[in-house]
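Why do we care about 3D structure at all? Because function follows from shape, and shape follows, mostly, from sequence. That is the central idea of this module. The next example makes it concrete: a single protein chain, its amino acid sequence, and then its structure expressed as tokens.
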Amino acid sequence: MIDAIGQRKAVLVLMILAMFILSGCGNQPIQGYEVGDAFTNFYPRMGGVENLGPCISPQFVKNGVTYQYTQKVLMAYDPTAPSAQQYTFGKIGYEINLDLAVIPDGGYKVWEDVEPVNKETGGVIGRAVTDVLQNDEKQRYEQYFEGAGFFRYYNDPAGMIQWMDYGEWMCGLQCLDVDLAIIGEPTPVVTPDVDNITLALVAYGDRLGDFYTGQLLISKARPVGNGLYEIVYENVVLVVHQDDLGNVSLLHLPEKLGYVSDVPVACTSQDGFICYPLGDGLVRMIPVAYYDFIVQNGGFELSGEPITNLRPGSGGASYQCFRNLCLESRAGAPEGLQVRVMPLGVAYNRMDMAAPFVTPNAPHMLVISTWPRYADISTSQSQEIYVQAMQGTMPVANILFSLTVTYPDGTTVEETFPLTDFNGRAYLTLDPIHAPEGTNIPYVACYQGGAENVVCIPGAFMIWSYAP
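And the structure:
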């Protein structure tokens, strides 16, 4: 899921002005503020700069509560609360994780790596609002709490956790000088019964469960030809015919993405493996853990037969592909994540394999937004800049945007985005930018609606880790 995670878009509509706390941060250097008077004892008690990072805003008051952003959290002091609850971390985890499903009563189980921090800070990190997650893009495990977030890189030993930059993300978002960008309302062309088709596919995905499918990546089923429609999740793609909504199947996703079948082998006795017969005395050797996962979650009728042998993956992982999905395991993974479905749907969704969604050339009430994939990046890392066009909850395709990036030396580079896709989105990839740590990279995305109808919205990201 991913992906997501911690990298949410700054939607440039009026509602952003009502987000949680609107004042208090400036676009200042990260070392630019002293600890406020209200937090002179609380800040060091929580670990000071080692845990919370430096202060990145002045102290400020909102509705009688005193706040101050640090790099990692939003400190809060409410003098009217009971004495044991006067000092807390602001609950900005919900703002960062906008795609949260229903949270169980009491929150999720606290990751054993985080439990020591939870105890040391007296529980001010709040409830866990996600389970332990895997972020393949950043090669790390993550867990999000109401007031803080934590991660551990795959290759780090258990217990070596780090704090996420909650405060920097939220402060940076709230300090954007955003303007309302409403420039017309499209009348999208919707395929007949697409809502019913979407409901049928999503209902099937709900029965499989999030741990199997991952998060939903598109909001509407999209046509793929011959009366077939698909909907894309992080891990799998579901397909159904418009005239047979009760017969949902899984797309042969690994083959679509180029996972080539291995040559079958003869059955041999190996500890931890079972032989899956393919005929003519040939088999695939499947790890027992994979076999148990499949049997307990819909069987081989759902996953399809194995098409590869067990293969080495990245970062010490191993994986094996089946007709409809791939399974992955990683030594030292937290409990419950030893075997998981690989997020192939993310790569598939980027292929943009379906036909374009045609919309009129003169939209009205169009709401546009932009965001970087990463709030902060290293000098060796590529960045992706996204734009989106929406009308209410309806994404709008075939909208043209341009991008202008201002580089540290003052030069600007302008590029044109591809036309927006079924999700109303388009993105461009920027090459790594060599600049000192803490450098702000501003950009402007502009809707190209003709010579007299150009609307631009700002964005920015930061160079945070220098890699010579």
